Amino acid sequence: MPARGIHHVDLAVSDVARSLAFYLAVLGPAGLHESERYQSYRGTEEVVYLRIGEQLLGLRPADGGEHHYYGVGLEHLAFYVDTREEVDAAYQRCLEIGARIHFPPEQDRDLEDYYELFVFDPDGIRVEVASGPPDEFSAKAPSNA
After folding, report:
1. Beta carbons within 10 angstroms of residue 88's beta carbon
2. Quick check: 130 and 79 in contact, CB under 8 A?
3. Residue 123, H or E segment
4. I want to staple 62 with a disulfide (CB 3.0 to 4.6 A). Which of 12, 21, 69, 80 is the partner?
5. d(Cα 94, Cα 100) in Å, to the nearest integer?
6. pLDDT, tens digit, for every residue of 30-59?
7. What percentage of the chain's residues is helix, strand, coil (to nearest 5)?
8. CB neighbour list of residue 96: distance below 8 Å, 6 or more residues apart
9. Mapping DSSP to helix (H, G, I), strand (E, B) and coil, where does residue 110 land?
10. Distance (Å, rounded) from C-alpha 24 to C-alpha 31?
11. Is 39 exposed, middle or buried (0-12, 13-18, 19+ CB in 10 A)?
């Protein structure tokens, strides 16, 4: 039986409140919202889960250290929205909160009708907000070619 998909991804962040404010500011208008809070399995911290569609993004306090772009770990986290206007609106919200922009909204060089923005969250994790054809990332059967 195949897996059903990714249920959630948890990020260890330096300041949960600051990260929560960032993600809600950038993606709240696109439907991202706080879903629930749980004590972690370690019992030493709370995990805040944000929901967008069927997926969850968890934010939990890191034990220390810092994220390094292109170091071992998460390269970027991508969110898919319905329209280019939503990507542009997310970009404007990023500017308003003083987020560090990696690439402003632009047409992807490789994917037709794929429009994307890249921004860094407060810990330097790269976040993509993109729109494209409605079926761009629907499940596709592997090709035998």
Report:
1. 16
2. yes
3. none
4. 12
5. 8
6. 999 999 999 988 888 899 999 998 899 999
7. 20, 35, 45
8. 25
9. coil
10. 9
11. exposed
